[in-house]
Specification:
The protein is of the alpha/beta class. The protein has helices spanning 25-38, 55-66, 87-92, 96-102, 136-147, 178-187, and strands at 7-14, 42-45, 73-75, 109-112, 115-120, 154-159, 192-195, 202-205, 220-223, 241-248, 251-260, 265-275.
Length: 285
């Protein structure tokens, strides 16, 4: 918890802002207020900054992100950040506006005290406009980065699309070859995967879906709902959420916040505490 003696790092996770018609100004303002109050060490923006990848939507998203706490920030694109109906642009230069306005880097890496965080562009605008892809070259890049990481640094992967389905009736399709990626991440001692896209939160462990060969730990999966739009789904229909992740030497605590109209504020609705692994094994040994 915040203030604990062994507290090392706090991450604020927001996702699916959807600037454009679905964005809700009042809830966006509430998210900025709670972000300031939580004083995170870093901010993760899990993709879908815009609704239709238009210039004015990217400009609004950029301005909004600039108002978040002045700490290291990692931003990745989502499938809504590439043109859907502008077919020629999607084929020729799908990330052109994102690169120009938000960041030239689609697979950013954030290295801060106690953590190495690798962002992966899971959009595949020429082949999978909705479900996304992670390519082998991206996994190879992850291996190089994580194998150079300090021994005591937590290793975190950020992608917009989900590697595991949410455990509810909506039955979302996961990314093709998600199991291959999860096995590589496990071998690389990744402890945490942060995702969005589902428009509802899920906090759990990869062992729920991929038993794998390392039965002693698995990977903690933290999916963020839509933080500022009216596009919530399932149990978070018409709801907005974000997560605060507290990382200490021996535990990872995920604090799930939901917006309540009565108080015009994001408030804590659940806490999830996970024991950190004590033994590292895999490709980097």
């Amino acid at each position: 918890m915040v203030g604990a003696k062994d507290q090392r790092l706090t991450l604020l996770q927001i996702s699916d802002l959807h600037f454009g018609p679905p964005f809700i100004e009042k809830i966006g303002a509430a998210a900025l207020r709670v972000a300031s109050q939580l004083k995170p060490d870093a901010v993760i923006v899990n993709g879908d900054l815009t609704q239709r990848a238009k210039r004015e939507q990217f400009e609004a998203a950029k301005q909004y992100i600039s108002r978040l706490p002045d700490v290291p920030t990692l931003v990745i694109p989502g499938n809504h950040d590439v043109p859907l109906y502008r077919f020629v642009e999607r084929m020729v230069d799908p990330h052109g506006l994102y690169r120009e306005i938000i960041s030239p880097e689609l697979n950013p890496v954030l290295k801060i005290d106690g953590a190495v965080i690798v962002g992966l562009d899971s959009t595949a605008p020429r082949s999978a406009i909705s479900n996304g892809r992670i390519f082998r070259s991206q996994l190879d890049s992850c291996e190089r980065i994580f194998c150079e990481a300090p021994e005591d640094a937590i290793r975190i992967v950020v992608a917009h699309h989900h590697f595991a389905p949410a455990p509810d009736y909506l039955n979302d399709h996961i990314m093709p070859k998600a199991k291959r990626a999860m096995e590589r991440f496990t071998d690389l001692n990744v402890e945490l995967i942060l995702g969005g896209h589902l428009h509802r939160a899920y906090v759990g462990n990869s062992l729920d879906f991929y038993p794998g060969k390392h039965r002693d730990h698995g990977i903690i999966i933290v999916q963020c709902g839509t933080t500022t739009s009216q596009r919530g789904r399932g149990r978070e229909r018409e709801k907005n959420t974000l997560n605060l992740i507290e990382i200490s030497d021996d535990s990872i605590t995920v604090i799930h916040y939901m917006y309540f109209h009565e108080s015009d504020a994001f408030e804590v609705v659940s806490r999830h505490i996970f024991r950190r692994r004590t033994v590292r094994t895999g490709q980097c040994d």
